[in-house]
Amino acid sequence: MNRIDQSNGLEFGIYTLGDHLPNPHTGEHISAEQRVKEIIEFAKLADQAGLDFFSVGESHQDYFATQAHSVVLAAIAQATKNIKIGSSSTIISTSDPVRVYEDFATVDLISGGRAEIIAGRASRVGLYDLLGYNLRDYEALFEEKFDLLRKINEEEVVNWSGEFRAPLNDARVIPRPKEGKLPIWRAVGGTPASAIKAGYAGVPMFLAHLAGPTAVFKRSIDAYRAALTEGGHDPVDFPIATAGLFFAAETTQEAQRTYYPHVNEGIKLTNGQGFSKRAFAQGEDVRDVLAVGSPQQIIEKILYQHEMYGHQRYIAQLDFGGVPFEQIRKNIELIATEVLPAIRKYTKEGS
What we know:
Strand order of the largest sheet: 1-2-3-5-8-9-10-12
Strand content: 15-25%
Distance between the termini: 26 Å
Number of strands: 12
């Protein structure tokens, strides 16, 4: 199922991991209550600005606030009118696909048919112990549960058996989404191996790329499209989304100076090691996927990526690392007034 109208050009979205980190410039650490409410307000601003997509991730460890991401998405569904909403991602490996489908079908009904699921395996793996799963089953859990989630999407009454969940016998999974089915994406990162599996399965691909040469990530995109064709699918029918770090300011120097401490200190606290300052500075090159700079520089980078990838949706992560809400608001304003009009002008059909 594909809700992207490619004639309108490249879709522009926002994703948040729901991180709950102190501001490295001031040391301020807002409450979890304030952080969750700000994420909902963030989605409202994105909706009012005319952006296409807003998604929320789950991470079950310190310094995060959206472990119950489907609950937050339900609040966003009620608070917004037009923007498509989704997960980024739902860790299907440690979840019950039946319950996930029930939750997101309900979010879809609340939103009037705007919900999507991006299913992933988790880059931070503490949730396996927390939720009672063995990390040695990392790959097998994902593949089995992702397949079941897709089966539920296709069949209202399900008969199924597997290794990691009790069988389903004539099980009716309700409610059904507004249009009967949900868009379900496979989250992909790292090597092309997962992209190839997405291609053979015939599912849309969500590719995470935080930083690095555009050409490196093109390998996964090329491998995905080749696997689609070999699997008997038409690549035209399967959209690709890319997602990465984004921060805009009046000048590139201001954007780098402001955002680097957020990224570096945030990654230190959540992943154990920081972000190379040299690599961050090298991200200024138009051929690097890191979208941190002036609006004009970011426009040139996203258009370059679109030329290389031919993808259908770009998703920006601009709130990572304790970014204060006023700067989030300013970024949405710059996206709405400068970035988005140019992206749509140069990527829509006939441009």
